[in-house]
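Subject: design request, 104 residues
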């Protein structure tokens, strides 16, 4: 499932924001095996495990958007709109922090 969040931060600042957001989320969800592996400056693989179900996502940061492509297991597909809504909300929260100057 693909989702795109537009931003006006520019690529470099969006990368910093995305990294800060993942670092905070990984700390918050360590009991679920949350991890993020940056493959390059603008691409990351994200992993999360809940009740034996593994969730993975690929994230790409560009000049104007942050794209999330999440692999949703069949069992969780009824919840995918809710999951993407939460992800969208979280990304917007971090973009707002950057716009207020809270993230360099």
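Subject: RE: design request

Done. Sequence follows.
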């Amino acid at each position: 499932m693909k989702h795109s969040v537009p931003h006006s931060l520019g690529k470099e600042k969006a990368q910093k924001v995305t990294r800060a957001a993942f670092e905070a989320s990984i700390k918050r969800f360590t009991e679920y095996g949350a991890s993020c592996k940056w493959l390059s400056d603008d691409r990351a693989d994200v992993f999360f495990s809940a009740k034996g179900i593994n969730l993975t996502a690929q994230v790409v940061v560009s000049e104007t958007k942050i794209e999330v492509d999440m692999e949703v297991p069949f069992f969780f597909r009824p919840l995918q709109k809710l999951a993407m809504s939460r992800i969208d909300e979280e990304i917007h929260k971090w973009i707002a922090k950057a716009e207020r100057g809270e993230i360099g």
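DSSP finds two helices and five strands in the chain.
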